[in-house]
Specification:
The complex is a heterodimer. Chain A contains 13 helices and five strands. Chain A is mostly helical. Chain A has a single domain, classed as Outer Surface Protein A, domain 3. In chain A, a hairpin with a 2-residue loop joins strand 3 and strand 4. In chain A, helix 1 packs across helix 3 and helix 4 packs antiparallel against helix 8. Chain B is an alpha/beta fold. Chain B has one domain: Divalent-metal-dependent TIM barrel enzymes (TIM Barrel, Alpha-Beta Barrel), CATH 3.20.20.150. Chain B contains nine helices and ten strands. In chain B, helix 7 runs parallel beside helix 8. Chain B is globular, with a radius of gyration of 18 Å. Classes of the chains: A mainly alpha, B alpha/beta. At the A-B interface, helix 1 and helix 3 of A face helix 2, helix 4 and helix 5 of B.
Chain lengths: 269, 270
């Protein structure tokens, strides 16, 4: 094949678009063929396996693959709604949010938002929070690495260097605000449980390849937020203390020490 | 050093085997990673990969390049791929001769191409772009398939051959995929093996599949089928010593069990 065709048939794009429609159709390949009155398929038939069946193999794998991935990401949601309802939720989710990512890791990112607007999400408003919590755990597990700020390094910092020191929050460490006690819900998710609304802030982070979480008070979240702006430490303290007059510099130093031990902070200089 | 040396006999690196490998440093010639599992992530996977890379050659094998899609190439994806390659310095990089989505969507599956001249030139242009960006030749793998297109103008092997020659890329020949497709599309797998140019094949894949009654499904969840072993023997006879890798993605047995299977490949090839 040494020469390019001058006028090759432009079939590739429409063929791929048609196949995507057929394979991702929520109600199945056959239903779409019937509904859209598609007379001929671009897929070859054979005596033992007609074209439609061949397409259904791919359609089935598309759904199965994403379903498996979401089951891994949202074990609590799965436990609450049950296998059948979960599959139906994923079907609806895929129809509304077909995957646009090259990695399955992100395919379920909009699932919490989808749950929020779903029938079961309205019936169990805490389910949305649980889903948000579960995906946050997943993100912490795979978040990129950073140079962790160590106690050994901090003791070498001279007093006059602290003001310009840049301390950040390592990528896996994020705090999240929830309207429901998701840390308790996730311990034993059950469809029968009744939960009380309780606004909480949870810090999630990875240390030694394991993901941890804990509730934190508002002032700690505010300090972490200030640190995440990647400003020189002097500026961080200045703006934080101006808004939290009741807290002392010792309190900031104590928190910093705790977070360094927990490997939550990164070194930016 | 040769650009594409014969690495010997390797296994697909799977997280289940991390502890075994890190404890025993088993006698495997090399490992192949699924590129996407390590792209844009940190934590245990990346850390473990770096440790393993210090002791073994690594090959990067992708599933999301979507070289055959009519969507524009995903720049962010290729950038991440290069970033990983610069970091771990793989012996080579491969992906599949297929498309995985269109219209900005991803099916997360390896969908076959229609074997047309239009598709050849479409894929060739994109492989060249990727190779230019990565600064190296890549390998394209034949996928197993359950459908073929009415518009196809050539056989799958002629398509693969044309793409490899025109794009100046290499081939990762998946022997199990040839077998699976030969059953699903009723062709002689030896026609495939005989048609592929010897100088293009850099790597073999071996894996297990499932028999679904009226078709075979490439599930990577079984030991390698006897007929696939037979075809591998014939492939070795034709292409000579080629880096060989066993893939297992589901029902993954213990590492020593896979090592036994790998030694079977070693025995057949010697």
């Amino acid at each position: 094949m040494k020469t390019k065709l001058k006028n090759p048939k432009k079939q590739l794009k429409p063929t791929q678009e048609l196949l995507f429609k057929l394979l991702s159709n929520k109600t199945g390949v056959r239903q779409l063929i019937r509904k859209q009155k598609i007379k001929s398929l671009p897929i070859a038939d054979s005596s033992n396996l007609p074209a439609v069946n061949r397409l259904e193999i791919y359609a089935g794998m598309y759904k199965a693959r994403i379903l498996d991935s979401l089951k891994d990401d949202y074990p609590g949601v799965l436990a609450v709604v049950g296998k059948k309802e979960f599959e139906s939720l994923v079907d609806d989710y895929l129809e509304k949010y077909p995957s646009v990512y090259w990695t399955l890791r992100k395919t379920g990112d909009k699932f919490p938002l989808f749950i929020k607007g779903s029938k079961i999400g309205k019936k169990k408003p805490w389910l949305y929070s649980l889903a948000e919590f579960e995906i946050a755990i997943c993100h912490a597990f795979t978040a990129t690495d950073a140079t962790i700020l160590s106690r050994e390094y901090l003791v070498t910092v001279k007093p006059n260097e602290w003001e310009q020191l840049r301390i950040g929050v390592q990528p896996s460490c994020r705090f999240h605000q929830f309207m429901w006690p998701v840390d308790l819900i996730s311990e034993k998710p059950s469809p029968k449980s009744v939960y009380k609304k309780e606004p909480i802030t949870i810090l999630i982070w990875r240390k030694n390849f394991r993901v941890y979480y804990k509730r934190i008070p508002e002032d700690e979240a505010a300090l972490l937020m200030a640190l995440s702006r990647k400003l020189p430490f002097g500026k961080v303290c200045e703006s934080f203390m101006a808004q939290h007059e009741s807290l002392s510099e010792n309190w900031v130093a104590q928190k910093l020490g705790e977070w360094v031990s927990e490997e939550m902070l990164s070194f930016l200089n | 050093m040769k650009r594409f040396p014969n690495l010997g006999f390797g296994l697909g690196l799977r997280s289940k085997h991390y502890p075994y490998i890190l404890k025993n440093w088993p006698k495997v010639d090399w490992f192949e990673i699924i590129s996407e599992n390590y792209m844009g992530v940190g934590g245990r996977p990346r850390h473990t990969l770096k440790s393993i890379r210090e002791k073994y050659p690594i090959v990067m094998h992708g599933v999301s390049l979507s070289i055959g899609s009519t969507d524009p190439l995903k720049k962010e994806y290729v950038k991440e791929l290069k970033y990983l390659a610069d970091d771990i310095k793989p012996a080579w990089i491969s992906d599949h001769l297929c498309w995985t989505g269109v219209g900005g969507h991803n099916m997360h599956d390896l969908l076959p191409m229609p074997y047309t001249e239009e598709a050849v030139w479409h894929v060739v242009g994109r492989i060249k772009q990727v190779q230019d960006y990565l600064g190296r030749q890549i390998l394209m793998e034949n996928v197993s398939s359950y459908m073929s297109y009415t518009q196809s103008e050539m056989t799958e092997w002629d398509f693969l051959k044309a793409v490899a020659i025109e794009a100046d890329c290499k081939i990762l020949l998946d022997v199990n995929n040839i077998y699976v497709s030969s059953v699903n599309h009723h062709f002689d797998p030896m026609d495939y093996i005989q048609a592929i140019p010897k100088n293009k094949v850099v790597q073999f894949h071996l894996a297990g599949h499932s028999n679904k009654g009226n078709y075979l499904l490439d599930t990577h969840d079984h030991p390698i089928n006897k007929k696939v072993w037979g075809l591998y023997q014939k492939a070795v006879n034709r292409f000579g010593p080629v880096s060989t890798l066993i893939e297992r993605d589901d029902h993954i047995p213990s590492f020593p069990v896979l090592l036994k299977e790998l030694n079977q490949a070693r025995g057949l090839a010697s």
